[in-house]
Amino acid sequence: MPPLGCTSCGLKRFFTMLDTDGDKKITFDELKNGLHMFGFTEDNVKQFLDKLDVNKDGTVTYDEYKKVFEIEENQDKDSESDKRTQILLQLFKKLDANHDGKINQEEWDKGMKSMQICEKFSAKLRNYLDVSCDGVITKQEFMVGLGMVEDPIDWRKVFEALDKDKSGDISVEELKAVFDDLGIPILSSGIVEWITQYDTNKDGKLDYSEFLAFAKAQESRAE
């Protein structure tokens, strides 16, 4: 069973995190790296892959992945969801070494290393969960990111975190800095093109209402 609630959005999120090379398929190595932190042994992963890999080609497509769990969704849904939630809450507690309700960079790296999680998957998962881009993962971000709850993301907080100079707008430079921090190569011209799609007042920046329009569009695509 996947370590998150069986919602279509949660399933898609977790598939994306497992698919570290972004080729729309999950290999054995990707599955092993992703599930190791949840206590899966190599034999467990092999059995899991065999169950998911409907056409037996050694990889799992999203359609295969989704089909299996939509079938299982009706079997003891509430009790299984509770079990997965407890597993993930225990994982959060383990990673939150100083018990302040947040996982900082040092705690995350140390926890992932202790569980022998590969750096590539660890970094991708951390960046995905840190919705506010403030360098720490809150319990709410952790729960929402892994599909444990369906609470909406607080886009106001995300906007404020991105608006480094507190001007009330997000500039090209501020967005470029975020991508640079995440290690994602992107040209400033690419960011300008992205901003232009939602910059209704044509000032070259995104105010909160413009940013929210973009954020809601992305939420709709993920559903």
Automatic annotation (TrEMBL):
<dbReference type="GO" id="GO:0005509">
    <property type="term" value="F:calcium ion binding"/>
</dbReference>
<dbReference type="InterPro" id="IPR002048">
    <property type="entry name" value="EF_hand_dom"/>
</dbReference>
<feature type="domain" description="EF-hand">
    <location>
        <begin position="11"/>
        <end position="39"/>
    </location>
</feature>
<dbReference type="InterPro" id="IPR050145">
    <property type="entry name" value="Centrin_CML-like"/>
</dbReference>
<dbReference type="Pfam" id="PF13499">
    <property type="entry name" value="EF-hand_7"/>
</dbReference>
<feature type="domain" description="EF-hand">
    <location>
        <begin position="40"/>
        <end position="75"/>
    </location>
</feature>
<keyword id="KW-0677">Repeat</keyword>
<dbReference type="InterPro" id="IPR018247">
    <property type="entry name" value="EF_Hand_1_Ca_BS"/>
</dbReference>
<protein>
    <submittedName>
        <fullName>Calmodulin</fullName>
    </submittedName>
</protein>
<feature type="domain" description="EF-hand">
    <location>
        <begin position="83"/>
        <end position="118"/>
    </location>
</feature>
<feature type="domain" description="EF-hand">
    <location>
        <begin position="150"/>
        <end position="185"/>
    </location>
</feature>
<dbReference type="InterPro" id="IPR011992">
    <property type="entry name" value="EF-hand-dom_pair"/>
</dbReference>
<feature type="domain" description="EF-hand">
    <location>
        <begin position="186"/>
        <end position="221"/>
    </location>
</feature>
<keyword id="KW-0106">Calcium</keyword>
